[in-house]
Each structure stands twice: as structure tokens, then as C-alpha cells.
Write a structure and sequence with these properties.
Elements lengths: L2 E9 L5 E8 L2 H14 L7 H12 L2 E5 L2 E5 L3 H7 L3 H15 L7 H29 L6
Helix pairs in contact: 1-2
């Protein structure tokens, strides 16, 4: 059963438009998905296996419309692979689900916050690289 279903259209890598139905997470399952999903996706810190498992839980609340029938939830890896043609489309659906289910991501708030974090990270990395560059540029006499 889909909670507050909302139909969206997602463009695939080939430029095709496909319809998907998003739904709200139930409270407990939503808590688990929101707690695991963002952190498990962080490079070098996250755990891909946990992220993939959580993505499949998230996708169980996405469905595809069926002519004259109930929407089909994408509740298994095989259903996701059969109805989502490429990884980019999958990423767009995942992001749409996060926007739909987490008010923090609504109205561009998430992207604004992520931009601020990105700028701070870039400044930190730039300073670190400059410091390391100076250390590696020192000329010492060869033995």
C-alpha cells in the first residue's frame, strides 16, 4: 500500500520519460532509511553494502503504474533492474524520494546546505594541498 502516492516523470539517459509513483515512508521504516541512507553513501566513510540494502528498502516505496491495475512496487532488486533502465535514472528516483520524504530537502534547502558544505570542504582541501605542496617542494641536498 502506497502512502500519499505522487506520480512523477523521470528522464532516462536515453532521453525517454518514464512514470514512477513515489510514496511516503511509514514512520519506522522511514526512520531506518533516513538514518542509514545518507551516511552509508559517503565516500571512504560509508558502507556500500549497507547503502545498497537501504536503497532497495527505499525503492520498495516506489512503484510503476500498470494499465488498469494496482501500481507495482519496486520491492526487489529484479523489479528495480527491470523497471529502471540505468543508474542515472535510479539516482534521480532516489533523490526524488528523499525530497518527497524529508522536509529538509524540500524547496532547495538540501542543495543550499550541500553547497555550503562543498565550499567549506574545497577550502579545507585547497589549504591542505597548499601546505603539502610547500613541504614537498623543499630542496634538500641529495646524499
Amino acid at each position: 500500500m502506497l502512502l500519499e502516492p505522487k506520480e512523477i516523470t523521470v528522464e532516462t539517459q536515453k532521453g525517454e520519460n518514464r512514470a514512477y509513483i513515489l510514496s511516503k515512508f511509514p514512520a519506522v521504516q522511514g526512520r531506518e532509511i533516513i538514518a542509514k541512507y545518507p551516511l552509508s553513501a559517503m565516500p571512504k566513510l560509508g558502507d556500500y553494502a549497507v547503502n545498497e540494502e537501504t536503497m532497495l528498502k527505499l525503492m520498495a516505496f516506489v512503484a510503476v503504474p500498470r494499465d488498469g491495475g494496482e501500481p507495482l512496487p519496486l520491492s526487489t532488486r529484479a523489479l528495480v533492474d527491470n523497471h529502471v533502465p540505468d543508474w542515472e535514472t535510479l539516482a534521480r528516483i532516489e533523490f526524488a524520494m528523499m525530497e518527497y520524504n524529508v522536509s529538509f530537502f524540500g524547496n532547495g534547502k538540501g542543495s543550499t546546505s550541500l553547497e555550503a558544505i562543498t565550499k567549506k570542504a574545497q577550502a579545507f582541501l585547497s589549504q591542505t594541498l597548499m601546505d603539502l605542496s610547500g613541504q614537498s617542494s623543499r630542496k634538500e641536498k641529495q646524499p
